[in-house]
Amino acid sequence: MTDSGASLQEYLAGLDYPVSREDLIRWCQENGASTEQLQAVKALPVDQVSSPAELTEALRPPT
Q1: Against a cut of 0.70, is the pTM above it?
Q2: What's the DSSP call for residue 48?
Q3: Rounded CA separation 19/15 (Å)
Q4: Most C-beta atoms within 10 A of its C-beta, which of 9, 16, 31, 41?
Q5: CA 31 to each of CA 10, 13, 16: distance values in angstroms, whole numbers, following the listed order
């Protein structure tokens, strides 16, 4: 995970899962996430995230 992915969790405190990518984007925008963090969420390879752990995994760069 990138540094932006790690710190992104700070902006997601209090978010109820499962959550759609669109709702994640909106939540991040409303809570002051950086442009880089928003881009990471917009690029998620899934349309819905079931848990914080799943989000962390989805934000990991491919190996």
Answers
A1: yes
A2: E
A3: 8
A4: 41
A5: 10, 10, 15
CA distances from 21 to 41, 63 (A): 7, 23
Report residue 30 as tokens.
């409303």
Judge whether 60 and 47 are in contact, CB under 8 Å. Answer: no
pLDDT in tens, the chain (63 residues): 444 445 777 778 888 999 999 999 999 899 888 899 899 999 998 999 999 889 888 888 777
Inter-axis angle of helices 35-42 and 21-30, to 10 degrees? 170
Q: Name the DSSP class of 16.
A: -
Q: What is the DSSP letter of 60?
A: S
CA–CA dist 39, 28 (Å, integer): 10
Q: How far out from the chain centre does Cα 57 lie?
A: 10
